[in-house]
Each structure stands twice: as structure tokens, then as C-alpha cells.
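tool=predict chain=A
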Amino acid sequence: MLINSTQSRDDVLQSVYRELKRAGTDTHHAFRFFTFATAGSGHGDPRVRMVVLRSFEPDWHFEFYTDARSAKIEELRRHPVSESLFWNPSRRVQLRVSAASSVHHDDELSNKRWHHVQCDNQKAYASPISPGQPIADPSDAHSWPEHIDARHFAVVRSRPYAIKVLQISGLKHLALEYSRDDVTGEWTGSWIAP
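tool=predict ok
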């Protein structure tokens, strides 16, 4: 368990912060892979996918990398809010994080992050075929140009404004809700019915 009923709301928030901070650097942490949801195009249907947490900063901002041609980029440009779901099965805790999310492509931030992407991992952002495009054979998606560059590399940076914590605990689940008016402001939280 990550939280218990004897902890203060501030102590729970600090526990959540520490776990997310660890996940930003620990490739084996359960929060490293998380679900990221956006409002899709058309009728705004929800779209959800797994992404990899690349960093978590002291101001609660977090980032992941993606192909700039992916559908989530256009969705975020149209409606720049997201919901992220983190789950740790060993601690039986779920975090739902609502955030304002921005896209960084071919700018100072994305260029800086590109230099941290290891050699072969750069291929994930260099396919000549855009994500989601029909292909005749699976191998078509695995051909890369001889020179790999950052032209399709993007960073999604999220600034949380609401967090819901759910601790699964037999019949006595625990839940808290936190929010802040300004993304750099103080969090306020309360216990809620799970």
C-alpha cells in the first residue's frame, strides 16, 4: 500500500510526488508506463494509449516522447487537456491526473530532449511512414532512412491541475482528490468516498 487512513492529506500528496519522481528515472517503476487519454477528432471521442514517463519535475510537470505525426498531437493541439492513469499493482494504488498538455516539436525543448534519446531508440521517431497509416506488410513499418534526425520527434509536456488517488484495500478503499487553480500554485486536497 502507498497510503493509509492515518496519513494527512499533505503526507499522501508527498508520497504520490515521490513515486512519480522515482518513475521519471527508474525504468522498472510501475508508474513508468502509463495511460494517456485525449479528446479525439470528430465527435471528441476519448482516445487512450500507453506512453512512457520520461521525466517528472519538482513543479509536477511530466513529459513523454512521441512521433509528431501521431493522432494524439493533433488532438492536443485542438484540445490541450489530457487525463493520465498511473497504476501500481504491487502497491494497489491508482492515480488519475488531469492536466493541461502542450506539444513541443522542432523547438528548444524538443531539440534538447532529442540529444538524450539513445541511438537505436531514435528510430521510433524516424519511420518514413506516419503512425496509423495502412501498410501492406508489417516489415514496411521497420525501414528507416540512413540518416536519422529529429524532424518527427515531439515532447508532450503535461501540467497537472487535478489528481485523484485511489488506494485499493479490501473492503476499505481510500480515495483523495487534489486540485490547484494555478499550475504553479499550492495543492488543496480532501478525502472522498472511493
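The first strand starts at residue 33 and ends at 39. The chain has one domain: 9-192.
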